[in-house]
Design a protein that fits this description.
The protein is α+β, with helices and mostly antiparallel strands and about 160 residues long. The chain has a domain of about 110 residues: Aminopeptidase (3-Layer(aba) Sandwich). The protein has a 7-stranded mixed β-sheet with strand order 1-2-3-4-5-7-6. Strand 2 and strand 3 form a beta hairpin. It is globular and about 40 Å long.
Amino acid sequence: MSQANIIVKTWGEFTPDDVFEMAVLRSEVFFVEQRIDEEEFDSFDRNPETMHLWCSDALGMQAYLRIIHNDHEAASHHGIAVGLGRMVVRADARGLGLAQQLMEQALEIAGDSPLYLHAQEYVKGLYAKSGFVETGEQFMEAGIEHRLMLRYPGA
């Protein structure tokens, strides 16, 4: 597995091309492949605290992940306000280890902060490798089965 060049930016640092490539990648996977018909882009994308991580190749954005801070939802995430989300890998880039590399970079950025994420059932193993533990019952989000997963410092 070769090491990807991971880009980390806040919304204010995005170029128009960054926005376009993020929209294309997330739309291709969430709307076209997974047929999600709920809001995918939200206020967290433009929040100045949100960190966007991705890697690209000549075809555009290959994989993407964001780190958000959400005090309003912390109570429903066992008091944890920092979450990872919108993990997505372009179809032709799957199997290259990009999701794992983005996850490692996100954990480095988050440091000692406890984290939450909503994992689609089929990718729970990826998150478990990074110290996330399933919590609570399975739930439906955007028409897809998910599980809340938490990670505490030192995991």
